[in-house]
Amino acid sequence: MPDTADSVVALQIMTLIDDTFLPYMRVGYTDAYNADKSDPFLRLGIEFSF
Questions:
Q1: 3-state SS class at 32
Q2: Domain range for 32
Q3: What band does 2 get if pLDDT is binned at 50, 70 and 90?
Q4: In the sheet that 8-14 helps form, which strands lie side by side, from edge to edge?
């Protein structure tokens, strides 16, 4: 059976601005696809609140 145990460790910070926008920042690392080393990542984004 192949090794399919991937893992992700992440931290996310969100805030609400004017009851409309939800900007966020997510940082972490993953060892997906049986990688020999962990790959760091940084995500920045905005979501909308309805």
A1: helix
A2: 8-48
A3: low
A4: 8-14, 21-30, 39-48
Q: Could you tell me the two tokens for 29? A: 């690392």
**Residue keyed to tokens 């979501």:** 47
Question: Considering the domain boundaries, does residue 1 fall inside one?
Answer: no
**Interatomic CA distance for residues 30 and 6, integer angstroms:** 7
Instruction: Dump pLDDT digits (tens) for 25-34.
Output: 999 999 877 7
The single-letter code of the amino acid at 8 is V
Give me the amino acid identity at 1. M
Gyration radius from the chain CA atoms: 15
Quote the tokens at residue 27: 């940082």
Domain count, the chain: 1
How far is it, in rounded angstroms, from Cα 8 to Cα 18? 32
